[in-house]
Records
---
Amino acid sequence: MGSKLDIVLLGLNHKTAPVALRECLAISKDETSIALKAFQELPSVREVMLFSTCNRVEVLMVVQDKMNSVDAVKLFLSGLKHLPVSEFERSLYIYEGDDAVRHVFRVAASLDSMVVGEPQILGQIKEAYHMATTTKTSGVLLNKLLHRTFFVAKRVRTETGIGDNAVSISYAAVELGRKIFGTFEGKKVLLIGAGEMAELAVEHLIRNRAGDILVANRTFETGVDLAMKFKGQAIRFDEIEDALKQVDIIISSTGSPDYVVTRNHVKGIARQRHNRPLFFIDIAVPRDIDPEINRLSNSYVYDIDDLQGIVDENVEDRNKEAIKGERIVDEAVLSFRHWYESLEVIPTIVELRKKVEEIAKGELEKTLHAVKHLSADDLNAISRMTEAMVNKILHDPTMLLKSSGRHEDKSVYLDVTRKMFKLDE
Amino acid sequence: MELGYQFVQSGQFPASNLHETLSLAGWTTAGVFLLLQYKFGLKILGVYAAPLITFAMLIAARLPDVSRETRNLLNNFWLITHVVAIFIGEAALALACGAGLLYLLQEHAIKSKHRGFFFKRLPSLELLDHTGYACIVTGFTMLTFGLITGLIYAKSVWGRFWSWDPKEVWSGITWLLYAALLHQRLTFGWRGRRAAIMAIIGFAVILFTFLGVNFLLKGHHGEFTRM
C-alpha cells in the first residue's frame, strides 16, 4: 500500500475511431477472459475489467502506476490483435480519476451512445462486469464503482425521458399505429414485398400482439417463405385489393415503380370495411402507396420521409433529455469521489499509528534497558502510560482526517500528514 | 352539497331557476365524467370537462338564487325523473362532444404529420371514438327516457302528450339528430371524423335547446331558466 491508487480508463468509441478500426480491435468473449488474466499479471494493475461492443472497446483499471499500465495495455492489445500500436494510438482516449468515473457513468446511462438512450449498453456492461467478477479481476474499487454505475444508469433512465420515443423507422411506425388503434390486438397486418425495415416493423407488431399476418409478394414462393417466418399466410399479388377489405395495417416495401395501392382501391372498400381505420406504412422508394389515400377519411398514410421526420424529432427530444442525464451523472461523480477519498484516509491513519507506536515502543525499550530496578507492576504502568500517550496524541489528527470536510481540505491534510511524518519512505 | 341542502330545505327539486339548473348541469357533467374515467381511464378528457363544468358553475354562482314559492308542479315523480334523465343524458352528450373535439385534434395531428402539442398527450383515435360512441349511446338512452317521462308528465298535467312547445320541438330535433347518428353508425359504420363532427353539432343543438330556446322563444319550460 502506501502510494496512491488511480482509476484509469482507456478506450476508443464510434466518435474517435472509424468502424474499420473498431472492427479490428473488437474483443470476443474468449479473448476478454484471456486479456483480463494477462492484465492482472501486470504488477501495477490492481483491478481491471474490459468491455467491447460494436461501438466501443474500453479497459477500466485500478492501477498504481498509470503510465506503465497504460503502455502495457496498449502493447497487449497490439499483440492480441496483431495491429501496431501506432495504428490505433491516436484514436484512444485515456481518462483518470473523476473523468474516468464520469465516462463509465455516461456510457452505462447511454449518454455516450451513437443513438442516445439505446438500452442495450447497460446489459453489455453488466455482462462485462460479470466476466470480471468470475475471473476475479475486480476488487473493492471496481465493485463499488460498477454498482454505482448501474444505479446511475437506472436513475437516468427512469428520471429522464432519454429512452422515450422511437428512434428507428420501424419502431416509429409502430408507435404511430398505437396512436391510431390504441392496441394491436386482433389487428390484421398485410406485408407487401419484403425488406429489412418492413420485416422489422412486422416483428414489432407481432410482439405487440397483432392478429393475422398476410404476406403478398410478386414471387409467390418468396411470399410463402416470409409467411412461414411470421406464421402468417401468403396471398397472390393480385389478391391485395381483396385483402384490403379485411386488414388494418399495411406495410409496403416493393421495388415497384408504380403505386401498388391506389386511391380508388381504398375508396371503393371503405363501406365494406365499415369505415374501420386503415394505416399504411410505405417504406418503399419509389412509393408504393398513393399519398392521396391519406386524404380519405379513416385512412392514414405514412411514407419513409414522414417516418424519418418523426425519428429526427424524437432524437432531438432525447438529446434534450440527455442534458438532465448529465446532471445526474455529475452528482454521482461527486458522491463517488467522496467515497473514494474516505477510503484513501484509512491507510494513512493506519500507517501514522504504526509509526508513532513504533517510536514509542523503541524508546520504551531503550529506557527500560538502562533502568533495571523497576518492579513488574512499575513496568506495566509505564507501558500503559506510553500507550495512553500514543492514543491521546493521535486522537485529534485522526479525527481531523476522518471528518468528512470539504474534499480539497481532506487531500491537503492527507498530503501534509504523509509528508510531516514521512510516511511515504 | 348546496343542491342537496336546497332540495331538503325547500322540499323542491333544484331545477326551478337558472342558478339551480346550471349548477345541476355542472354536477351531473362532473358525475358522468367521473364514471367515464373509471370505465375508460380517459383522464385527458378532463381538459375539456373541467373548463366546461367550471364555466357552468361560475355562471351559476353569479346568478341570483331567488327561491320561489313552493309549487307542487315540481314535485311530481314523473317530472323529477324527467329532469334527472335529461340532465344525465345531456351531460353524457356534452362529454361525447368533448371526445369528438379531442378526436378531431388528434386526427389532425396524425393526418397532417405535424405532431404538435397534443399528439403525445392525447390517447389513440380508437379510444376516443369508442368513448364518444359510449357517451352517445348512454346520452341517447337517457334522453329517450327523459322525453318519454316528460310526455307522461305533460299528459298528467296538461292532458296531452305534445303541445308544440318550442322546447319540445327542439328536443325532438335533437333526439332525431342523435337517432340518425346512431343509425348511421350501426348500419354503415359511421365512425371517426364524421361521427366526431356529428357529436359536436349535436351538442350545439342541445345547448340551444337547453338555453337558447328559453331565452329566444317562449314556452312552458321558460321559468326554469328565469333569472
---
Amino acid sequence: MIKKDLSIEFLGVKFKNPFMLSSSPVGNCYDMCAKAFRSGWGGIVYKTLIKDPCDECSPRYDMLTKEATPFVGFKNMEQLTEHPLEDDLRDITRLKKEFPDCVLVASIMAGSDEDWKILAKQVEDAGADMIELNFSCPQMTDTHLGSAIGQNPDLCRQYCKAVKSATKLPVIAKMTPNITDMCEVALASMEGGADAISAINTIKSILNVDLDKEVGLPIVNGKSSISGYSGKAVKPVALRFIQQLRDNPKTRNIPISGIGGIETWRDAAEFILLGASTLQVTTAIMQYGYRIIDDLCNGLMHYMEEKGVDHLSDLVGRANKNVIPAEELDRDFKIYPKIDDDKCVGCGRCYISCYDGSHQAMEWDKKTRRPTCNTDKCVGCLLCSLVCPVGAISKGEVVFKPGRGKGRKTKDVII
Amino acid sequence: MKDYLKEAEEAYTPLLAIEEASRCLLCLDAPCSKNCPAGTDPARFIRALRFLNEKGAAEVIRENNALGAICARVCPQEKYCKLGCSRSGIDKPIEIGKIQRYITDFEANLKMEILRKPEVELKQKVAIIGSGPGGLELAALLRMKGYQVTIFEKDEKLGGYLRYGIPSYRLPNDVLDLEIKRILDLGVKNLVNHPVDDDEFKKLKEEYDAVVVGTGYELAKTLPMFEDDPHVELATQFLKRAKNEGGDIDVYSDTLVIGGGDVAMDVVTTLKRIGTPRVIDVVYEEFNEFRASQKELNEARALNVSIIDGYVPMSYDGKVVTFKHRHLPSVISIEPKHIILAVGQVVRPQFDLDYNLGEVVTNNYRVGDSNVFVVGDIAKGDKTVVGAVKTAKEAAYFIDSYLTKAREK
C-alpha cells in the first residue's frame, strides 16, 4: 500500500493529514471525536460552543435526490452545541490529552465582544490548538448571530479583534456563502486579526416541498424554515468563493481551510489545487461515516505520486492561475466532437441534445442508428460528449474560426 | 403451497424501480417501442417514471393495453421489447417487464381508473365467445367504442388460459381479477358456465350484429402411444387442476414430463413448487433449439428440474417409457410414477369454420362475408398473450369498421 507524507502545516500547527471534521453534528462529543481521531482524521473542528446550549427541532434534516441517488445535497437545521459549556470544555481537554498528535480546533460563537473573549479564553485554557469563529451558521434562532455576523464586515472585524485580544491561539474566521462578495468580509476579518479563513458554511435553502401538506421539508409540526444546504451539490459554489479569495490581491495569501461537498480524494485535490491547505468534511461523514478517511488519504497519496510531489503543500493553489476572467479566454478556435462508432450504442441522445439544446449539428442515420457531426453547423460546444452514456464522443479536430488564429498552430491549443 | 401461490418474481421497490429506469438510455428512436406486438411504448412509460410521473406512466400502459399488468408478468420480453434494447450495448437490457409491473402495481394501489366508459352508447351488439386474453382485450376495446358487448365463457370464471393455465406464481389470480374487473366495469356483460354449441352459435349470429370466436387452442395434443392411458395426464389438465386448488394437489415421488415449450416449463416449475421431489423433463429439441423462453428455462433449472434434451419417445408399455436420442445412438428408459404430456395444444374445430394450419381462414379477422370474426390463438399470429392482444387490437379495428358501415347504411 502506498505511503506518502500527507502532513501539512497550517497556522504553525502540523496536521498529519489535511482532513478535518467540520464544526457540525459529526464532532459533537468526546466519543465521536475520539473515534474520528482513531479512524485517522488529521483534525477536528469541535461543534460550535456557545454560552447557552441550543434548542433544536425534530426532525432536522432533508436531502435532495436525483433518480436513485440520495444525498445529492443535504439540508440541516441544527445550530450549535446542545451541551452545557463545561461538558464540551471537559471533552476538549480530554481529547487533547489522549490525542496529542491530532489537531483540535474549537469553534465558538457569541453575540458580544465580552462573550467572544470569555469563550476564546475558555477554549484556550481547555487545550484547543486553534479557534474557529463561527460567523456563518445560517439557521440561528437568534437572528443577530451566525451568518448575520458573516454578512457584516464591521462585526467580523470587531469580533476578530476581540477574540485576538483574549487569546494567543491562531484564529480562523468561518465564512458564509450567503453573500455576493466574500473578499470584503474576509478582508475585514483579517483586519481584525484573523489568521485564516474557512469557507464555506452552508447555503440558505429550501430543498423540497411536501406536495400534500404544502410545506417545505423537513416538516416540524406542519412548518419548515430556510436553513443550510451542503453536500456534493455545493462544491462548485465553495470552489468559486475560494478561487475569488485567492484572486484578490488583498486576501490572496491568507491560509484557507476548504469546506463544501468534499466526499472523495478528487474533491479534496480540487480544493487543494484552488488554494485550500486544510479540508473540512461533514455531509459525507453523516452519510457514510468516519471511515471515508481511508480513501480520502490513500487516494490523495496516489494523486501526489502521479503528480510527483512529496509535500502536499506543493499542490496548494496550483490551479488558481488557470482560472481567468471570461474576457481573457482564447475564443479563436472550436473543437469538433470525435465519435467512436465502436463504442456508440445508437441511443441518439447526442442527436436529441444537439438539436434541442445546441445547434442542430448532429445528424442521425435512421437505418444504422449512428450519429455524425455536420461540421458546418457544429459550434464545438461538446454538449454531445456530456450526454453520451458510453463515452463514445471525445474532443476531436481543433479548427480556428474563419479569419482567426493567424500564425498559430492548432496542435498548440491545449484541450 | 406458499411457493405456488406467491408470485415468484420479487416486485421492485420504488428505489429499485427508479434505479432501473435510470439505467435506460432514453433513446431517440427506442427499439423497445418498435418491438411490442401489442404496441406498448416502453420508452414512453420508462421516461415518465424517470421523471417521477408514475401516474402518467400508468396511463401510457393502460390506455394501450387493457391487460397491461398481465403482460408485464407473462410476456416473453426477450423476444420483443428487450430484444433491441440499446442498453445491451453496454451491459444488459432494461428490465422492461418489471418496470411495467411496478407501474401497474402503482396504478392498482392507487385504484386509478384509466379506461373510460364510452361517451356515446351504440345499439349494436357484439358477442364474444371465450374470455382469454384476446376476448378480454377485444371486449374492452369494443365496449369503449360504445358497443354492447357480451362475453360467453364455458368455464366458471373469466380468463381462459390466463385463469386456468398460467400458474399463480407467474400470474396471481388477484392481478387477473382486477384486470377483468376493470373491463367489466366498462359495462361489458358476461355469461359464465355458458359453452356455446353450434345451434346457439347460429342464434347468436342472428341476434348479434357481430359474433367473435376467441375459443383458443382448447385441445391438448397427445401422442398415439399414450392415448387413453389413465396414468398419463395432459399439461393443460394438470395446470388447471393445480390452479383450481391453489397448488394443493397430490404429488408423486417423481413425475416425467414430455415437452419443452413454455407450457412444459410451467408444468415442471409447478411440479417443483408443489413439492414433487423428482421432476424429469424429456425434450424433443436440443438446448440450442429450445422453444421455451430463456426466463422460463432458467427458472426450471433453478428449481433443479432434470432436463434431458434431444430425446424422442419411442415406446410405452403402460409402465416404462423408452426414448431415443434424435441424433446419437442413445436410448433411455424411465419408469415414472406419473406422466404429463406437454406437447402442444391444437384448435378444436367448431362452428363449421375453415382452418388452415390450426388458424381460422379469414379476411382481416372476418370469416368470409359473414358477421363472424375471430380473435386470439385461432387467428393468425403468435400464440402468446401479447400475440392475442395484438389480434384483439387489429380485430377491434376491423369489427368497428364493419359495424360502422352497417350502422351508416
